[in-house]
Amino acid sequence: MKVQVHPALSDNYMYLIIDEKSGEAAIVDPVTPATVLAAVKEAKVNLTTVLTTHHHWDHAGGNEALVAQADCKLRVYGGDDRIGALTDKVQHGDTITIGNLTINCIATPCHTTGHICYYVTSSEPSDTHRPAVFTGDTLFLGGCGKFFEGTPEQMHTALITRLGALPDDTDVYCGHEYSLNNLQFGLHVDPDNEACKEKYEAMVKRREDSKPSVPSTIGEEKQYNPFMRVEVVELQKKRGTSEGVDTMRSLRQEKDGWKPPA
């Protein structure tokens, strides 16, 4: 398995997932189709699949154009009828196969009601790439998406019960480049978190070098992402809460109005 990171718009990421043995490929949230088609041509792969995390225009807005411009028929997967060019609606627990790759659909409603994350593993013994999860606007490096259509209870299930149960070495590919803002907020609410300090310093350097911050890993997120740490007693004490859902609610409410220091 190979994952290509393709920036789009002002701060979005699209991902080309390639099964190197079969040459079959999938694209995640292809909001700029021209970039996708150029990448497919350069990689000399067979694009068969579109994986859409949610219906917002900056993720699904390129679906129709990509389908129209592609050389072959594409299957467009997603968990919401509002997704453009949708051919296959999926739900939690569904699986998709791309060559030797298995894609497990993880429902994470909250940012939108139909949000799906895609967990990808390879059955090819020689494939040394770690498992990967494509999290759209549910889990960001150091943060999480706004609760536009859901509740703290839903985001707690998404982050702690579902994504948090994935292997710690799973690479996390999120939908936006929000790393510095998120890590600054992490240090604001948890200033003694050494993992967050180290990650922030590393990401400042990567962004200065015009490199994407992705991927992180599930294990890393559990160390410095406050939204993945809502069950940690020390963080609950700092928030004046006593359980995870209330901590999730408190963090998101503050983050929604928070601005980093100038």
From TrEMBL:
Its EC number is 3.1.2.6. Its cofactor is Zn(2+). GO terms for biological process: methylglyoxal catabolic process to D-lactate via S-lactoyl-glutathione; RNA 3'-end processing. Residues 249-262 have a biased composition (Basic and acidic residues). Residues 238-262 are annotated as: Disordered. InterPro entries: Clx_II_MBL (IPR035680), HAGH_C (IPR032282), Hydroxyacylglutathione_Hdrlase (IPR017782), Metallo-B-lactamas (IPR001279), RibonucZ/Hydroxyglut_hydro (IPR036866). It catalyses: an S-(2-hydroxyacyl)glutathione + H2O = a 2-hydroxy carboxylate + glutathione + H(+). Keywords: Hydrolase, Metal-binding, Zinc. Pathway: Secondary metabolite metabolism; methylglyoxal degradation; (R)-lactate from methylglyoxal: step 2/2. CDD domains: hydroxyacylglutathione_hydrolase_MBL-fold. Signal peptide: none annotated. GO terms for molecular function: hydroxyacylglutathione hydrolase activity; metal ion binding. Residues 11-176 form the Metallo-beta-lactamase domain. Belongs to the metallo-beta-lactamase superfamily. Glyoxalase II family. NCBIfam families: GSH_gloB. This is hydroxyacylglutathione hydrolase. It comes from Hirondellea gigas. The lineage of its organism: Eukaryota, Metazoa, Ecdysozoa, Arthropoda, Crustacea.
